[in-house]
Specification:
The chain contains eleven helices and nine strands. By secondary structure, the chain is α/β, with parallel strands linked by helices. Helix 7 (about 155-165) crosses helix 9 (about 205-215) and helix 10 runs antiparallel to helix 11 (about 255-270). It starts with 8 loop residues before the first helix and ends with a strand.
Length: about 280
């Protein structure tokens, strides 16, 4: 497995454009909205192999909130790679804090803004069209930075963490999840996954912990839920198969076929112990 942030033109320079184009596509938009979970498009914490995707995904949000100590109605929260913004709507509803949902897909952000307005939360949530590799905010600005299964799409992961550290207030907290390679993942075994997401590497738990601590963040603890990654991709593949007839005219047959294959690679990687996933919490010193 090549090291995260390895220098390569496609993996670094083109990663943002590749991700934006993908998530802006009609196929991806309908797939994630109708199959993956709608408001929450990240890995879930499942009670069993058959639980529905939406409640398991929301349970991840709830667990991340439980780990935070700086979250209150006066907090400023930044979500980098916010998708459809479900996590920030949850915080706005339950905590009443001001949230920024930063995301590079304009298509996803349109859905996000519409749902915020429908739920009467648009006064608490700013939806920003932007990449998280460079954050247009001053130093020491946010109490909490939040990220779910988004940083893998960057070819500059160390830079992303440096930006997170910069915009956090002293004592501020960074809570994140990301699909990763296991620390002991053999070279080359994840190539089918990497080819599918147009990247040269995935992060690892060791990389994120090492990088964050070198930047000046305290490692408050990594909750390892790697088995949930395998379970989640398996459940998404099952739902895609079940809903395929309803997706006719919304999602192309070619996309469905390729997605089933791609999801299968994630399941295989997880079953072989080559993937990792869980909840990190860091605190800025």
């Amino acid at each position: 497995m090549s090291a995260p942030d390895s220098a390569a033109p496609q993996g670094v320079d083109a990663a943002v454009d590749v991700a934006r184009d993908y998530y802006n596509s009609s196929d991806a938009d309908h797939f994630y909205f109708h199959v993956w979970g709608g408001e929450d498009i990240h890995v879930g914490l499942y009670r069993d192999d058959h639980e529905a995707i939406a409640p398991a995904s929301r349970r991840t949000v709830e667990r991340m909130v439980e780990r935070l100590t700086r979250l209150n109605a006066n907090a400023r929260v930044l979500d980098i790679g916010a998708g459809y913004g479900g996590s920030m709507r949850y915080l706005a509803k339950t905590v009443g804090c001001h949230c920024v949902a930063l995301n590079l897909s304009e298509v996803e952000n349109q859905r996000d803004r519409a749902m915020n307005a429908e739920q009467g939360l648009d006064h608490l949530i700013d939806v920003v069209d932007a990449s998280f590799e460079t954050l247009d905010y001053p130093d020491n600005h946010f109490d909490v930075v939040w990220s779910q299964d988004a940083i893998l799409h960057s070819g500059r992961r160390a830079q992303v963490l440096a930006e997170v550290h910069r915009v956090l207030k002293p004592g501020g907290e960074f809570v994140m999840t990301d699909p990763m390679a296991a620390d002991d993942c053999p070279e080359g075994v994840l190539d089918p996954i990497l080819a599918r997401i147009h990247l040269q590497s995935l992060g690892t738990p060791g990389f994120y912990i090492r990088t964050a601590t070198e930047l000046g963040m305290e490692d408050v603890g990594f909750e390892d839920h790697s088995h949930q990654l395998t379970r989640h991709y398996g459940r998404v593949r099952e739902e895609l198969t079940r809903l395929a007839p309803q997706l006719k005219g919304k999602v192309s047959d070619d996309y469905v076929t390729r997605m089933k294959t791609g999801l299968g690679h994630w399941v295989t990687g997880g079953e072989n112990g080559h993937l990792a996933w869980g909840i990190f919490l860091f605190r800025k010193r």
